[in-house]
Amino acid sequence: MLRVLKVAEDSLAPEYRQGDFVLVSKIPFLFIPPSPGNVIAFRQPGYGLLIKRIENISSDGGVNVIGTHPDSIDSRVFGTVRRGDIIGKVIWHIRKT
Amino acid sequence: MIYQILNKFDQKLNIETVKAHCDIPCGIYDPIIAQISALTVVRMLDLMTEFEAKTPDRNKDYMNSMARYIAVKEEHAERAKAEIRVIWGDYLKAQHLEKYPNAHALVHKIMQLGSKVRQTTDRDQATQLVEAINEFAQMFWETKGVATKRAKAPYAPALELVYPAL
To answer: CA-CA distance, B143 to B25, in Å (whole number)?
Structure first.
């Protein structure tokens, strides 16, 4: 239900930087479904475990995610994220000091 | 303080990383190049067979044309192998291999057939290469959740290829 993950790479910079830690949980989604602005961790076939921000929810229920960096690999490249592939929402961000 | 505790924890237990992926892999993978390359190998063998039958003189013109067919056969067999290696090495990840445990054996079979069609003029081996790469293409598109269809290539040799049904 709760997982600590370490951020690698910089597509969500400057807010999330390489070396930061995040606490991720599915619990919030039991009450409120994923919505634009949420930062989520998910498994994307071919790319592994990724962290991105939800840009919008597509009409078929898929989740479109985006990074802040112009070179971010996100839904513009791999399409929508299936809800079943979502690991959870970032509920705590511990920045590298 | 909390960061330092987590960092110590990470140094001992290796906390799983979550990638904010940004290293510009182009993400463009498609087995069609390998499929067409394998088809080209079959085509070159057919052209060699036809040319041999209709050309009685083994003169330098004959040698020249035959050498060109062989060169193209060599090039495309190697290209098919290289394209499959890239998808296998760069695209296929652990979760794919869990789902398709035969993937390594299939790629190895393609490598072996790719070498065999360079060494020989055995058309049967070449069609086996086309079919093995079709099998790989089928698996590849399944990993992306893309349905496939089989259809004859619209050019000689009109062998069946696996295409994404888009």
So the answer is: 18
- Structure-token pair, residue A63: 């989740």
* pLDDT average per 10 residues of sequence, chain A (97 residues): 85 81 94 94 86 91 84 80 93 88
- Where do the domains of chain A lie, and which CATH numbers do they carry? 2-94 (2.10.109.10)
Largest CA distance in chain B: 86
The yes or no reply on domain B31-164 and CATH 1.20.120.400 is yes
| Contact residues, chain A, for B24 at CB < 8 Å | 71, 73
Shortest CB distance from A9 goes to which of B10, B22, B95? B22
Rounded to two decimals, the pTM is 0.58
Angle (deg, nearest 10), helices B103-119 and B123-143 = 150
ipTM value: 0.75
Q: Where are chain B's structural domains?
A: 31-164
Contacts of A95 in chain B (CB under 8 A): 3
Show which residues on chain B lie within 8 Å of chain A, measured between beta carbons: 2-4, 6, 10, 15-25, 27, 91, 93, 95-96, 143-145
